[in-house]
Amino acid sequence: MNQNNNLLYKLYELIKLNRLLSIRIKFMGIVVLMVLLLGYSNHYVITKNLSNLIEEQLLQHARSLGENLSAIVADPVLTNNLYELHNIIDRTIRDDIHVRYIFILDTNNNIVVSSLPEQLPKGLREINETVNNEISIKRLQTDEGIIWDLAAPIADGLAGTLRIAITDEYRVLGIKQVTKNIIISSFVIMFISLILAYLLTRLLTKSLFTLYNFTKQLGQGKYDILIKPDIWAGKEINSLNSAFYEMVKNLKTLREKEENAQKARKNLLQKTINAQEDERKRIARELHDEANQHLAAINYGLDNLRHINDIDRIKAEAQELKVLVKEASDSLRALAWELRPKLLDEFGLVLAMKKYLEYLRVQYGLMISFTSNVDSIPVPHTHKISIYRIVQEALINIIKHANAKKIEVAIQKSKENIIITIDDDGIGFDHYDKESLGIYGMHERATLIGGKLNINSNVGEGTTVLLSLEINVEEIE
Ligand SMILES: Nc1ncnc2c1ncn2[C@@H]1O[C@H](COP(=O)(O)OP(=O)(O)O)[C@@H](O)[C@H]1O
Ligand SMILES: [Mg+2]
């Protein structure tokens, strides 16, 4: 557990270090690591092969030397010519740098001659012997390093045994030399690679720093940034630069658009407030002009009635007053219809629309047809109000501007969406005052509920308002 924690802590430290180190240091560290790894693996493979090769050659050499020498010494041994034997051994040792020692044993294992000035080291005599009159080679680990001791029969063993030792010294020396060369070349390569890595990372970080500075400026709202193409930077960096430049340009236009939209919104808000005020004034005027006038007339009529004695005249006056009451009630009702579609709460959207259309039909004497393939529209309640207002605005526009004879309203529901069309055969229009809020409001409302509004109109060809909504089952209350 503790060890685990320790390990985790070390890992954490490493990550922290990683974050602190610059790309340059990391990159150069990787270069050093790679060169070292390459040098080490090269060294391993080369010395291993070289060592095997040298060993093989040394053994070959030992074997042929043994065979030759045992043939040469056979005669002097048999004739006990010690002088000749010493000569041969001395010459061999002098001429062959690989030979460490030579001695000859007679058939009783007594030393006949030896190149070693002192006594044979203990156990050396017994350590190797011919096997079935064949040459035998033993690998000995001594204080001086590895030695190959060779025992060769002289005159088929009849004259004793020749012993020669070949040292490993030259193999070790060769390997040392190779190792030295590899280390030197690795350092040279490392030095060159480090310079290259330094230059490359400089190139990289320079571009990154430029981008970093630009980003900082961007953060401070400075969009007029000029990024010059860098001939030293690579293709990728230059692509990054131009992508960045493109982004800044887009940001700039986006910002400008956003600012314009902000202005437009502010403008619109002011207009909406004004429109609200106008609407209030209109309602007040309507109440005053229509209902109040009627009520005043009724009041006057009732006053008048008190002074009339003739029952027939009273009846006639009452009849007239009734008409006035009806007119007053009509104008109040019209106002109420516009202000709040209370039927929406009571009957739902489809029925409320139907009732509203009936009211318009009676009120304005229009030919209005209504078709729907559903009884209710599956959208949230707040959406229903928006839909109702859009339809209402379209209809009021027809009454106000279109001079139409026929209006067709249709609700078409399919699996995925609902399409509501309001079609008139009025005068149509090809442009309109963008300052007016009706159509703008229709679009806004449609967008707010995730729908799409299309108004198709041509002068003299009537107008079609088309509202389409996707049905999203999850949204329905
Ligand atoms: N159904 C229609 N037929 C003819 N003209 C229309 C129709 N609907 C809208 N318009 C024209 O579009 C203009 C803008 O309409 P709108 O934004 O609702 O503003 P408003 O109704 O207050 O004038 C109207 O003034 C009118 O000229
Ligand atoms: Mg309008």
From TrEMBL:
Catalysed reactions listed for this entry: ATP + protein L-histidine = ADP + protein N-phospho-L-histidine
One annotated GO molecular function: protein dimerization activity
Domain Histidine kinase/HSP90-like ATPase: 382-473
UniProtKB keywords: ATP-binding, Coiled coil, Kinase, Membrane, Nucleotide-binding, Phosphoprotein, Transferase, Transmembrane, Transmembrane helix, Two-component regulatory system
Enzyme class: transferase
Residues annotated as transmembrane: 20-40, 181-200
One cellular-component annotation, GO: membrane
InterPro entries per UniProt: HATPase_C_sf, HATPase_dom, Sensor_HK_TwoCompSys, Sig_transdc_His_kin_sub3_dim/P
Enzyme Commission designation: 2.7.13.3
Keyword Coiled coil in annotation: yes
Residue ranges the record marks as coiled coil: 247-331
This protein's record includes keyword Coiled coil: yes
Organism superkingdom: Bacteria
Protein name in the entry: histidine kinase
Species lineage: Bacteria, Bacillati, Bacillota, Desulfuribacillia, Desulfuribacillales
